[in-house]
Design brief:
CATH class of chain A: Mainly Beta
Radius of gyration of chain A: 21 Å
CATH architecture of chain A: 3 Solenoid
Largest interface: A-B, 48 and 43 residues
CATH topology of chain A: Pectate Lyase C-like
CATH class of the largest domain in chain B: Alpha Beta
Largest sheet of chain B: 8 strands, parallel
Number of domains of chain B: 2
Distance between the termini of chain A: 53 Å
Structural class of chain B: alpha/beta
Number of helices of chain B: 16
Strand order of the largest sheet of chain A: 1-2-3-4-5-6-7-8-9-11-10
Structural class of chain A: alpha/beta
Helix content of chain A: 10-25%
Helix content of chain B: 25-40%
Distance between the termini of chain B: 61 Å
Shape of chain B: globular
Shape of chain A: globular
Oligomer: heterodimer
Strand content of chain B: 15-25%
Number of strands of chain B: 23
Number of helices of chain A: 4
Number of strands of chain A: 12
CATH topology of the largest domain in chain B: TIM Barrel
CATH architecture of the largest domain in chain B: Alpha-Beta Barrel
Chain lengths: 310, 504
């Protein structure tokens, strides 16, 4: 049980004095140049290290919540209060394992919010997300975008297991690699077509039970796809892998083909969208556009259709 | 391949009564009856008959009788007719035998071996016709203690109490999804729940958008392994959210809604493309432990702003009392337990008839376990699977449940005759079908009235029995096993049930 919340814990830009943390106000005013310490993204505890410098995805301004020492519900209480107060942009600093960030921000008719996270958010980031945009400057844990409906999650780092599980809409971009069972039972419906783009590679059971949507794995490290059991039980959607894959790595419900003309247009577009979000990789554009891809699609929409005696 | 399976039912037509109106032909979706022009008579293909009695009830001349076929193999206690016919079916198709409804096997029905108490002389009984009798039940967590502040009339409860929902009688409609049952049947349950003041359960097929504003307040919405039809609005329009882990008819396995049943409206509600199989994996792939379950429980609490109780539904299996304890500790507000005789729209017969334990034994052990651990108040307990009458309801509550889910009983109220052909999607009673012609046989206004009538009748009977025991609130009976006695049970059964033998 949480005690009464203290509104003064929340820095809100609409407050009279536009109170912002010192480093932010300094940046906004165009004053000080960040010192060396501020370039160390790996130090989430350092206030000066936060939303600055080399991350072009940053959202300037917005209400800042320092997550240091906050429990999951305490943090989501604060974010929800910000939403109810009409805040459109939230910056979470020093996230450290707090789960479900973004999940509690549903309200009928609520406009899309921007949530920027520094640190390492916990499991189920953006679970049941319905239209918000989450940007994480760092790695994320398991269950990102679980049963997500709409919106976007961008991860400047790597992600854990079951990313995009049962996701039905929205997009997830991960700069580095992802864990096991990515896009498990992802589905689509009419214009809702989820997209997951992974800069690195994925572990085993990528796209298991997949029923819709698009997964693109770019393997920017040129390590080759090591994942096994790709697309086991798949019955919808498409997986694109840059480079090649052995047939032994695929589930028996999957067939492999070369992308067609329409697919190339789609891939070009997705690579473009990916590189917009990670401009530090812009130099790879030409290489990526020229690369070979393979397309994995289900053999049947009904893998288990003939199991039963009628 | 010629089928070697003899017809299960015999169709007897009284030719003197039959005026060849061909009503039976129109009524039967299985195609049993047809008109033979050459012979100018109605003929019946008995091999197609499911024994659902639709044609019998709707024959205006009462000319039809459908009865089990008198022809029989040589009687054999080991090789029963069902065993032989199923085997032949598999030899002919190579497939898994599917079935519908709850198990029909002769497992002991403990309800029928328990009797209730009544007051005589020393503790007067209460007449429910003249005195208030409370069936209202709150489902959700109750605090360990209540801290009250204030004096005189200004009294306030200081303790933060978790979300509870209220039902006018401790009887809820069990999870039956739109897709498994028809839109009309689904809507009938929704209407009846709202009219009566109880809840219906959406199953895992989603809640059609146009029903959300009117019936969401009476809905328990399910989150199952397929995650069909789930978005934030679905979760937030409901009264409570239920994580379906297991089902009594098919513990441990998932479900396949065949593409044939995925009509455009079903597809829209489940939010999947039309004409694909809707596959629900056996496990939730984000739940491999109690800790993972806790994560999903809290994800749903977050998604519903901590305003709705979160239920977890499991099948009654071995060691489930320990599992239930874990579920409570994981943060569930309600546990629903579904027993061996729980129904289904489609399940492999071998699973339905061989996996799980009877609900009566389950209620008692879980209630005792949670009491022993001092956490019984943290959650409510709903029992499901084979509740047939008000007597079963009241015995379930005396054994330790807070309330019951009824599925099969509700379907029977709407016309179901337990022919077990739900999986074919050709239900002549318009319940378990997506064929608009068949589904149109249910008028939600009439069917919902049948359902509310049933709930009203059971409530009246429960009040009578409570009054007879000298109790005026259902709450006082919960877990009060002293009001039960066993008849014809072994010692171990009495021990598990936690009741004495009759006469003791």
């Amino acid at each position: 049980m949480t005690g009464p919340r203290n509104p003064s814990d929340i820095d809100h830009p609409s407050s009279a004095d536009q109170k912002l943390p010192s480093h932010l106000s300094a940046r906004t005013a165009g004053q000080g140049i960040p010192d060396e310490g501020s370039l160390e993204r790996s130090d989430p505890g350092d206030e000066a290290a936060s939303p600055t410098a080399e991350t072009s995805n940053q959202v300037c301004g917005g209400a800042v919540v320092d997550a240091t020492g906050l429990k999951t519900k305490e943090l989501s209480d604060r974010l929800r209060d910000l939403m109810l107060a009409g805040t459109g942009r939230m910056i979470v600093k020093n996230a450290c394992g707090q789960r479900y960030i973004g999940t509690r921000l549903y309200r009928p008719g609520q406009a899309s919010l921007q949530i920027e996270i520094f640190g390492t958010p916990g499991n189920d980031l953006g679970a049941f997300l319905s239209g918000h945009r989450i940007l994480v400057h760092g790695n994320v844990q398991d269950g990102v975008g679980n049963t997500m409906d709409r919106g976007e999650i961008v991860v400047e780092g790597r992600a854990g297991d079951v990313l995009g599980m049962s996701m039905r809409g929205g997009r997830i971009f991960v700069r580095d690699g992802v864990g096991y069972r990515t896009a498990l039972h992802m589905k689509e419906y009419l214009d809702q077509k989820p997209v997951v783009v992974i800069g690195g590679t994925a572990q085993d059971f990528l796209g298991e039970y997949m029923a819709g949507g698009i997964v693109l794995v770019l393997d920017l490290g040129n390590r080759g796809h090591q994942s096994n059991f790709i697309g086991t039980g798949m019955h919808g959607g498409a997986i694109f892998l840059r480079g090649s894959v052995n047939l032994t790595q695929l589930g028996k419900e999957v067939e492999i083909s070369a992308p067609g003309e329409e697919d190339h247009a789609l891939l070009e577009n997705l690579i473009h969208e990916f590189l917009i979000r990670f401009p530090e990789l812009a130099a790879r554009q030409e290489e990526l556009q020229k690369s070979q891809f393979v397309k994995l699609t289900p053999v049947s929409k009904r893998p288990y259709g003939k199991m039963y005696a009628y | 391949m010629k089928s070697f399976i003899p017809p299960e039912f015999q169709v007897y037509r009284d030719e003197d009564r039959c005026d060849q109106c061909r009503g039976c032909e129109r009524q039967c979706s299985f195609g049993v009856h047809s008109y033979d022009q050459d012979r100018d008579s109605i003929i019946s293909d008995e091999s197609k008959c499911a024994g659902c009695q639709r044609c019998v009830i709707f024959c205006p001349m009462d000319a039809l009788t459908i009865r089990p076929s008198p022809s029989s193999y040589r009687p054999n206690s080991s090789w029963t007719r069902e065993k032989m016919d199923d085997l032949k079916k598999q030899a002919e198709t190579g497939g898994v035998i599917l079935t519908g409804c709850g198990s029909d096997k002769p497992f002991r029905i403990y309800w029928d071996h328990m009797v209730l108490n009544a007051s005589q002389v020393t503790n007067p009984s209460i007449d429910p016709l003249r005195e208030p009798m409370e069936l209202r039940t709150f489902l959700g967590p109750k605090p360990d203690f209540l801290k009250i502040s204030g004096e005189g009339k200004d009294v306030a409860i200081e303790t933060e109490i978790g979300p509870n929902v209220v039902v006018e009688a401790p009887i809820l409609f069990s999870a039956m999804s739109y897709g498994a049952i028809s839109y009309q049947a689904f809507k009938s349950l929704a209407m009846a729940a709202c009219d009566f003041g109880t809840f219906f359960n959406t199953g895992e097929g989603g809640l059609p958008k146009e029903l959300r504003s009117d019936y969401g307040r009476c809905a328990v919405v399910q989150v199952a392994s397929g995650r069909y039809g789930i978005d934030a609005e679905y979760l937030n329009c409901a009264a409570a959210v239920e994580i379906k882990v297991g089902q009594g008819a098919k513990p441990g396995i998932g479900g396949h809604l065949p593409a044939e049943k995925v009509s455009s409206l079903v597809a829209e509600t489940r939010m999947i493309p039309e004409g694909t199989d809707a596959i629900s994996p056996a496990p939730h792939h984000d739940i491999y432990s109690i800790e993972d379950l806790s994560m999903l429980i809290y994800a749903l609490k977050e998604a519903t702003n901590y305003e709705k109780p979160i239920s977890v539904k499991i099948a009654a299996v071995h060691n489930f009392a320990a599992i239930a304890s874990g579920i409570v500790r994981a943060g569930a507000d309600i546990i629903a337990i579904d027993g061996l005789r729980g129904g289904t729209g489609a399940a492999p017969k071998t699973i339905r008839d061989n996996v799980g334990i009877p609900i009566e034994l389950a209620i008692s052990s879980v209630d005792r376990r949670l009491r022993d651990e001092g956490i019984r108040n943290s959650c409510s307990l709903l029992a499901a699977g084979g509740i047939r009458c008000s007597g079963d309801v009241i015995k379930a509550i005396a054994l330790g449940a807070d309330g019951v889910y009824i599925g099969t009983a509700a379907l029977i109220a709407m016309g179901c005759t337990l022919c077990q052909k739900c999986y074919t999607g050709r239900c002549n009673w318009g319940i378990c079908t997506q064929d608009p012609r068949l589904a149109g046989r249910i008028n939600p206004h009439i069917a919902s009235r049948r359902l509310t009538n049933l709930l009203r009748a059971w409530s009246a009977e429960i009040k009578e029995m409570l009054g007879g025991m000298g109790i005026n609130a259902i709450e006082s009976l919960r877990g009060n096993r002293d009001h039960l006695r066993g008849v014809g049970l072994y010692e171990w059964e009495l021990d598990v049930l936690g009741i004495k033998g009759a006469g003791e």
